[in-house]
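Issue 218. Parser rejects a valid record. Input:
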Amino acid sequence: MPHKQILKQLDIDFMSRRRMAAISSILVLLICLVSMLLRGFNLGLDFTGGTIIELGYETPVEVTDISATLVDTGFDGAVVQYFGSRQDILIRLAPQSGEASSAELSDNVFRTLVNAAANADLGDVELRRVEFVGPQVGEELREQGGLAVLFALIGILIYVAVRFEWRFAVGAVAALIHDVVFTVGMFSVFAIEFDLTVLAAVLAVIGYSLNDTIVIFDRIRENFRKMRKDGVLEIVNRSINQTLSRTIITSGTTLMVLLALYFLGGEAINGFSLALIIGVVIGTYSTIYIATAIAVWLGISRADLLPTPVSKEGEVLDDRP
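Output the parser choked on:
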């Protein structure tokens, strides 16, 4: 059943702004690439290795007080954050020199905070979880994560080329590369922690952006077969306008959920939801001004999308317009 249109009879000339959009995208991507090359990423413990400690306090506590206690006792660089309520605390520690094991490190941190809680009349402290990620494991996760993104892009290139036409495939993959670089680049520019949940969000962005791109490509192919007298730009603009209602509904409802997760879901999923928010917004933009615009620049035409006529005897008839 077709969706209900919330926007009707739109006639926005999207393609007339494709050059300006391309220049803007190139400038932003250059900033992201320079930041990634020079500043790198604020990698989480999933990639760098370290210890994660989850604690439960009997009464609400302030993360600033816990951070100050850890710094005073020699645990520099600890990242302390709420893990749900103000009584649930998550501590991330980079690998510490001079410690015999992760167990010894977690025991020292736990004893320190228990003593501090007793002195401040904060009640009992419960040690709920301790996890350790070795540096070698973190390096393997970085490599495997990068390969996952690369293989996803290669698979999408093959899929779109088979289903549509190679110009569409190039446009789709260029848009996905644009989305990935922009999303991870924002984490580098603003030094936001990049961990496995963010990488999972990047892979989800690839799938989301591709879905929106396929919808528009399908409509363009359909309109090429229906609108025999119109030019390429007119058909592309008409196709984008016809799918704009669906795009707004899909992206809008998705963003509502993601914003709720970002503001109400707690620190543990902030990076995941932020990456998806960035990806959904930029993916909607790139579908129009990267994927579709590149297909237009590469010279997509009606002859590329119309089925090849075949005679009853099986001979190919070359009488396409």
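Fixed in the parser; the record now loads. The chain has two domains: 14-42+137-305, 50-133.
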